[in-house]
Amino acid sequence: MQLKPTIFALSSGATPSGVAVLRLSGPDSFSVAETLSGHLPTPRMAALKSIRTRNGDLLDRGLVLCFPGPASFTGEDCIEFHLHGGRAVVDAVSRELLDLGIRPAEAGEFTKRAFENGKLDLVEVEGLGDLISAETEMQRRLAIEHTSGGLSAVYAGWADRLTRARALIEAELDFADEEDIPGSVSDQVWDDVERLKADIKTQLEATQHGAFVRNGFRVVISGPPNAGKSSLLNALAKRDVAIVTEIAGTTRDILEVDLNLEGFLVRLVDTAGLRETEDIVEQEGVRRARSAIETADLILALIPIDSDAEWNQTSVAAPVLKVGTKADLLTAPSIGYDLVISSKDGSGISALIDAITSEVRKRWNGIAAIGPGRLRHVQHLKHTSFFLEEALSGTQLDLRAESLRLAGECLGRITGRVDPDDMLGVIFSEFCIGK
């Protein structure tokens, strides 16, 4: 393990706070901690210590914990100072650490060292980042699964199968004259390679469809002008987000509101009314509305029950719920709608929320058992699948073996066994300082 400069950072968030945690990692962590607080406590046991300058001036009294490497988060010697969370206290201890030659950590540097020292792979790193930023229960569940190595184990299992396949093929190539290496030994690997290709296809679909857990399930509210789109947005958000008037074309731009429905992040998108218009600004609003419809996970097609308007967007890919609005004006049973609501008196709103939640759960139930990865994984999974197909359709055994090697390399890029430095920089830059 390569020794690197010792780093420190505030790992507990902005001050002031009840407690501030200053974390150190690197070869000088223990000696610096002894300089500031005296004899170190038993590893992983907190001890109350006086934190002093080299001149003996008291800075604070707090807990000190030490974590000897490699059994630490980063794999290096680590120290944590649990201080009082005032700005002056943190600044004073930080200045003393700077005077002792300890460098402030960059964003994600602790986690990057954990990766470099083999404590985490890239999938677990991404899961940790997702866990830190998780805002809903399903985001937390997905992040925990990735952080605990569940998805990494899937990828590692596939890599092992590829390694075994290559070993059998190379045994036939290298030892074809040996009696204990039958000439058709490689034939037994291709059925498993075919199954592996199918497994990767399933995972690829789950990853593409599962992005909604992390990025939000996009529900686009669409329809003609004055259909009650903005009123519905306000009713679902339970606050005045959009301006509502009787004037057609009031909404000109996209408005988004995030909801937490049973642990899922649902992103409501209010759009301009769909109609032909000579107004240049409104034309742009309509264009953006149509663009939002194309990227929707679910479309709420709002149609006022007191009008003869129809939903005529026939080329959309997402499911469509036809919602009759202004139900408070309804005098007779209405047909032709999936739901009938009134944003004015609230009727039908609960049923609409249930319908949206049901659509989200349908998507989740199709992918939950697989554990969708990030969209970064999609490119590498596609390349892996391409090389597997190349291996399956090939005729020369040595070239087929090379295709399997390239497939394994693509899988390795997902977990970080092989990955360019610029990609690593992008991933770790997403972390906050101190993690």
TrEMBL record:
Top-level taxon: Bacteria
Binding site for GTP: 226-231, 245-251, 270-273
CDD domains for this protein: trmE, TrmE_N
Keywords: Cytoplasm, GTP-binding, Hydrolase, Magnesium, Metal-binding, Nucleotide-binding, Potassium, tRNA processing
Annotated K(+) binding sites: N226, T245, I247, T250
Residue span(s) of domain TrmE-type G: 216-361
Gene Ontology terms for molecular function: hydrolase activity
A matching Pfam family: MMR_HSR1
Cited InterPro entries: G_TrmE (IPR031168), GTP-bd (IPR006073), GTP-bd_TrmE_N (IPR018948), GTPase_MnmE (IPR004520), MnmE_dom2 (IPR027368), MnmE_helical (IPR025867), P-loop_NTPase (IPR027417), Small_GTP-bd (IPR005225)
EC number(s) on file: 3.6.-.-
EC category: hydrolase
Annotated (6S)-5-formyl-5,6,7,8-tetrahydrofolate binding sites: R23, E80, K119, K435
Cofactor binding description: Binds 1 potassium ion per subunit.
Binding positions for Mg(2+) per the UniProt entry: S230, T251
Co-factor(s): K(+)
Cellular compartments annotated: Cytoplasm
UniProt similarity note: Belongs to the TRAFAC class TrmE-Era-EngA-EngB-Septin-like GTPase superfamily. TrmE GTPase family.
NCBIfam families xrefs: mnmE_trmE_thdF, PRK05291.1-3, small_GTP
Task performed by this protein: Exhibits a very high intrinsic GTPase hydrolysis rate. Involved in the addition of a carboxymethylaminomethyl (cmnm) group at the wobble position (U34) of certain tRNAs, forming tRNA-cmnm(5)s(2)U34.
Subunit description: Homodimer. Heterotetramer of two MnmE and two MnmG subunits.
Name by which UniProt lists this protein: tRNA modification GTPase MnmE
